[in-house]
Each structure stands twice: as C-alpha cells, then as structure tokens.
Amino acid sequence: MYKASLFPEGLSQNEKLPIRIVSPDFGHIGTQSEAAYGVSNQLPYYFFLFVLKGSGHRRVDLESFDLEDNELIFSLPYQIVHLPESFHGKDYFKLGFDQECLSKLPKQYSFLLNPLNQPKIKISESAGSRLKAIFLTLKSLLKTSDTDPELILAHLHGLLTEIDSAYFGNAKRPGDAQLEKFISFKLFLENNLTDHPSIKAIAEELAISTESLQHIVKQYSGCSPKEFITNRLILEARRRLYYGEHSSVKELAFELGFNDPDYFNRVFKKVTGKTVAESFQDLS
C-alpha cells in the first residue's frame, strides 16, 4: 500500500510544532543530512521558498520554474520536489510545516489547493517587505526550541494570509462563488481520487449542474472535469512510480482504482506519451 510519511524526525525547530525555517545564515541541516534526502523528494509537508535576492530553477512535479527577485514558489504535500539545478540566492527563506501545524491555524488558506495551478508567485515590493519581516520574526522565534507555539502560529497565520492575497492578485478572490466551487471540486477529488467519481456525482456533491461544473473547471484549469481527473490520476501514478516499488502495471493500476490494467496503460500513454513500463525504465 501507498503510505504517507510524517514530518521527518529531528527536522522541526520547535518542540511542539512540526516546522522549520532556513535562511542563508540559519537552519541548514548540514551536507551529510541533506545528502540523505537525495536529489529529489516527495515531501510529506508544505514547502515554501521565497527569493528576495537571487535567481535559479526549481522543479515541482516534473515541471521547471525560473526564480528571480521577489518571487515565491511553494509545493504541497507529496508533490515531487527536486533540489535546484542551480540557485544563486543572496537573500532567501525556506519554510516547511505539515498538516498537523496547519490544522492549528484559525482559517483555511485557499491558495494551498493551488486552484489557479500557479505554484510560483510574483510578490510586490510592499508585500515582499511585509513577508520578509514575518519570516525574520519566525526565524527569531525558532532559534529557541521551547518557544510558545501560539506565538509561532500567530505569525505563520499572517504569513499565509499575505501569500494567499498575493497568489490571487487581480484574479477573482475565493469569495467568488465559482472559484469557491472549483476549490471544492479539487478538494473533493483529492479525497476521492482512486474512487474515480463521476462528473454527475461530483456535481451533485457540489450542488450544481453538470453544465456549471464543466464551465467552472474549464475556466480555472483550461480542461474539462474528465480531463482534469484523468491528468490528476496519471500524475499520482507518476509520483508512485517515482517513489514506490511496483512489480507490475496491474499492481499500480489496481492501487489507483483501475479495474483494467490494459486500459490504465493506454490512458497513461495517452497523457504522458509513454507506457508505464517505459516510464519506469526512465526512472530506474
């Protein structure tokens, strides 16, 4: 079975919260420990990199992103994150925390579902100054492992609220009914992915018509709900190929809810251009 990991033991900088911050002069885990994580990882926690001054590249779920001054990139739990091929950061912050930490915060942050499919965010100069101030405060708090968690959570809430605002920018905010429905669609899909929910069933769950669901998903993702679900399933297959030990296409297909391994293989090839076996060979 596919099992989730927890926030790595010994990584947290606080005794009661699973959280770690890194800057050029603070929080590095050391070359030997870093090597143990490998070149790429399927991180079981939320990860943020905010570049104030610098440039480089980062890969998230096999997509590459260029990073420059005042840009932030984030990844969600179980996305595949590669160490930067090149990174020249003079001033930056890295932050990691898991779902346990997030559950203690006073609200949900819509951007963490990445409804607009844009993990990289351009931060304005004014917002960048505010983010830097919060990161510096968090760094100060995490220098002592027994800091009151409530202090850390208060500043983490402010940080995520700032990022949430920057993420949506000029786009319609989560108060918009259609965006709320799209976020609900993504959340429902994440919770029921391997059950292969039908479009009709999802529309009924969201209390909208199938036509409205088609329009909303197309508006925010650029593809139909069926294509979105298929792409998400194949992405999950690629993640599990990357980190799992599967003896056959059949095993992987059944794990993802496909009753017909041959059909799964055809869908996989249609989306990726390669069969499961060919993709496994590429990763070996």
Describe the structure.
This protein has 284 residues and is α+β, with helices and mostly antiparallel strands. The protein folds into 2 domains: 19-168, Regulatory protein AraC (Jelly Rolls, Sandwich); 177-283, Homeodomain-like (Arc Repressor Mutant, subunit A), CATH 1.10.10. The chain has 11 helices and 8 strands. It has helices at residues 31-37, 99-103, 125-142, 149-168, 177-192, 199-205, 210-221, 225-243, 249-255, 261-272, 276-283, and strands at 19-22, 40-42, 46-60, 63-67, 71-75, 80-82, 87-97, 120-122. Strands 1, 2, 3, 4, 5, 6, 7 and 8 form an 8-stranded antiparallel β-sheet that branches. Helix 3 packs antiparallel against helix 4 (149-168), helix 8 packs across helix 10 (261-272) and helix 9 crosses helix 10 (261-272). The chain is globular. It starts with 18 loop residues before the first strand and ends with a helix. Residues 1-5 have low confidence and may be disordered. It comes from Pedobacter westerhofensis. This is AraC-type DNA-binding protein.
Give keywords.
single chain; 284 residues; 8-stranded antiparallel beta sheet; Jelly Rolls; 17% strand; 2 domains; alpha+beta; Arc Repressor Mutant, subunit A; disordered N terminus; 11 helices; 46% helix
